[in-house]
């Protein structure tokens, strides 16, 4: 189990240049700025767009003074399960752009061959392989380093995340069983909603298979951070690359808690601004669903956020010592068994949980934290109950 640690200051974030290291954490980064790294491969597609190179494909080579060693060659295999869907397709494209990836394996129950053929024409290093249907799932997963699971049905107008449960819970259970059998050491990224329930389901399945490692099972909540950073920057007229807002709790409605008091750079909010921003971040998914008017949910922003988390994981696997992301994991930071908070990632998954984010919060945030716990607890228990019921049913057959 990862240790809980207190970090006195986190002064920076994705896109910020690392500051000279003294003590604690001096660089928060899902995605590092290109001026602090040297891209090994700069394809014509990336061109001179510095921010795009930095945020999507930072192939990092440490400066001479760095003690970390990060391999310059693409060497990681990533599988996307649900690759033909609304999130899976743009996510596949963004992962294909990463010079850290040697193989991009795309799996779905149908229509994945065309996606793979399309992506294979992009002149980036990753070889693209396609796998269709349950009979090919095992081959898709063997030997992969990171598994990303966006598979499932999208949310439609009037549908809550909880409405997705019965369909997506079964899908996640089946896919995680295959992961347990074929690549139990891989980092597992769960995107399929409701994340507050599907991550506990995955944990129970992995436990049953005897291969559960809580340091390598992640609920991807990066989109909440991406949205919080964007909305705060807009509200306060800040340079977006400078903004970092930790988001804790869960990944649905009021369980999403942006800690605006911990925003970097330091900025003050009125009570009205705090409530307005918090509610907008919590309901941002519904904002997109309604704007698409029945045509889908948040697929593009979700793919961007998921690609950021994949890149962070690959950087951690490569040996980068300064990788921090918010994610929904098994945790002892609160009295709940799972909780989203900022963590330090390393070669073996979660190295530590940044407990400092929950210290010295405002009265509004403290009340919101207590208010979210019953709903998050119920969602976690619902996932565990589903997994146990499924296991009992299978055992009785």
From TrEMBL:
Similarity field: Belongs to the LDH/MDH superfamily. MDH type 1 family.
Example GO biological process term? tricarboxylic acid cycle
The organism encoding this protein is Eragrostis curvula (weeping love grass)
GO cellular component terms listed in the entry, alphabetical order: mitochondrion
> Which keywords fit this entry according to its UniProt record?
NAD, Oxidoreductase, Tricarboxylic acid cycle
Q: PROSITE patterns, from UniProt? A: MDH
Query: What is the protein name for this chain?
Result: Malate dehydrogenase
The keyword Transcription is assigned to this record: no
CDD domains recorded for this chain? MDH_glyoxysomal_mitochondrial (cd01337)
Which Gene Ontology molecular function entries are recorded, alphabetically? L-malate dehydrogenase (NAD+) activity
The EC number(s) attached to this protein equal 1.1.1.37
Q: Where is the Lactate/malate dehydrogenase C-terminal domain?
A: 221-386
Q: Which domain of life is it from?
A: Eukaryota
């Amino acid at each position: 189990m990862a240790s809980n640690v207190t970090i006195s200051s986190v002064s920076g974030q994705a896109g910020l240049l690392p500051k000279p290291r003294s003590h604690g954490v001096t660089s928060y980064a899902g995605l590092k700025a290109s001026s602090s790294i040297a891209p090994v491969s700069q394809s014509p597609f990336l061109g001179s767009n510095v921010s795009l190179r930095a945020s999507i494909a930072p192939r990092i080579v440490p400066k001479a003074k760095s003690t970390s060693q990060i391999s310059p060659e693409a060497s990681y295999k990533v599988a996307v399960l649900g690759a033909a869907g609304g999130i899976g397709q743009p996510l596949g494209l963004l992962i294909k752009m990463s010079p850290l990836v040697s193989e991009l394996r795309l799996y779905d129950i149908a229509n994945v061959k065309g996606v793979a053929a399309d992506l294979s024409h992009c002149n980036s290093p990753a070889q693209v392989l396609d796998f269709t249907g349950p009979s090919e799932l095992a081959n898709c997963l063997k030997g992969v380093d990171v598994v990303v699971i966006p598979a499932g049905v999208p949310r439609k107008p009037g549908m809550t995340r909880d409405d997705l449960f019965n369909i997506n819970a079964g899908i996640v259970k089946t896919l995680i069983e295959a992961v347990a059998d074929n690549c139990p050491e891989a980092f597992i990224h769960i995107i399929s909603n409701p994340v507050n329930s599907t991550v506990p389901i995955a944990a129970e399945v992995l436990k049953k298979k005897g291969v559960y490692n809580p340091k390598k099972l992640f609920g991807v909540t990066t989109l909440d951070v991406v949205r919080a950073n964007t909305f705060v920057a807009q509200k306060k007229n800040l340079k977006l690359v400078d903004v970092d807002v930790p988001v804790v709790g869960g990944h649905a409605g009021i369980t999403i808690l942006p800690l605006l008091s911990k925003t970097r750079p330091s900025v003050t909010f009125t009570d009205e601004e705090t409530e307005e921003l918090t509610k907008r971040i919590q309901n941002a998914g519904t904002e997109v669903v309604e704007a698409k008017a029945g045509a889908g949910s948040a697929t593009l922003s979700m793919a961007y956020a998921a690609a950021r988390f994949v890149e962070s994981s690959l950087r951690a696997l490569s040996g980068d010592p300064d990788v921090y992301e918010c994610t929904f994991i098994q945790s002892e930071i609160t009295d709940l068994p799972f909780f989203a908070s900022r963590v330090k990632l390393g070669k073996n998954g979660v190295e530590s949980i940044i407990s400092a984010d929950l210290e010295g919060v405002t009265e509004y945030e403290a009340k919101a934290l207590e208010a979210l716990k019953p709903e998050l607890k119920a969602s976690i228990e619902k996932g565990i109950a589903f997994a146990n019921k499924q296991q009992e049913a299978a055992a009785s057959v």
